[in-house]
Amino acid sequence: MPYDDSVPPTRRARPLLVATALAALCLTAVAGCGGAQDPAGTDTGAAKPGPEAEATASASASTPSPEASPTGAQPSGATPTAPLPQGPLTGRTVVIDPGHNPRNREHTKEINQQVDIGTGRKECDTTGTSTNAGYAEARFTLDVSHRLRELLQAQGARVVLTHDDDRPFGPCIDERARIGNEAKADAVVSVHADGSAVGNRGFHVILPAAVKGGGADTSKIVKSSADLGARIAGHFVRTTGSAPSNYIGGGTGLDTRGDLGGLNLSTVPKVFVECGNMRDPEDAALLTDAGWRQKAARGMADGIAAYLKG
């Protein structure tokens, strides 16, 4: 669930260029790339407390620091501890933004404070959603982000995480955007999972709308972000076997929004990936499976690499 999502997304028609690119990538993928079903609004409620269904199976996160500054902290993973291997992504920088923070729910006052998103104001962050069994979206996003980082670094990319469970809450949505901008990232991917009604299944990629106002101006990144999103969507289908969302995006797996600060404030190509619906039992079974999460990371990594290679 997008960390600054306060209204249900609405379906918008995609440009022909993006739809064509996704259709081409889906030709060899699972059935279901084109079929749309009845849309429904998404749930933006807080994560339900409860035991987490599965520990993360990826590279371990940095040790949390209770005294970590909630603002102005250095992004995680900015300086690799060992030289990166030479590969097809050598010289490229990718910022991965794990949606939410596992301890946001302990800092509701702080995350409810409003921040400027250029065209208005929104909450600093939210808790995110969870499965009905209590597996938090924030834990899911960290796990997948670790896997994605490892895959991209293996190809030579410099990878920066906006956070790594190393701060008490946040970062706020404006800081998340700023980390990507200051890194001069070639691509930014914000990892999420949705919280919608039972029966709503599949993934979707959120693209920035053309927005200009206040401190927001996406005019220079709309086209490149659409290309990045289409490539990720196509590879995600191919690698995970999951179909595009049956409730958002008209069967394309792509949705365009102008109300998300993380996209509005970005000056570099950026998308959100909603990997599935945590509130649907069938999707939840995938999201809580370590093997499927590795496939999800692989699909995103392949899409990012395809975009960066041109």
From TrEMBL:
Residues 1-31 form the signal peptide. GO terms for cellular component: outer membrane-bounded periplasmic space. Keywords: Hydrolase, Signal. Residues 49-73 have a biased composition (Low complexity). Residues 177-305 form the MurNAc-LAA domain. GO terms for biological process: peptidoglycan catabolic process. Residues 41-107 are annotated as: Disordered. InterPro entries: MurNAc-LAA_cat (IPR002508), N-acetylmuramoyl_amidase_3 (IPR050695). GO terms for molecular function: N-acetylmuramoyl-L-alanine amidase activity. The keyword Membrane does not apply. SMART domains: Ami_3. It comes from the Bacteria. PANTHER family: N-ACETYLMURAMOYL-L-ALANINE AMIDASE, N-ACETYLMURAMOYL-L-ALANINE AMIDASE AMIC. This is N-acetylmuramoyl-L-alanine amidase. It comes from Streptomyces cavourensis.
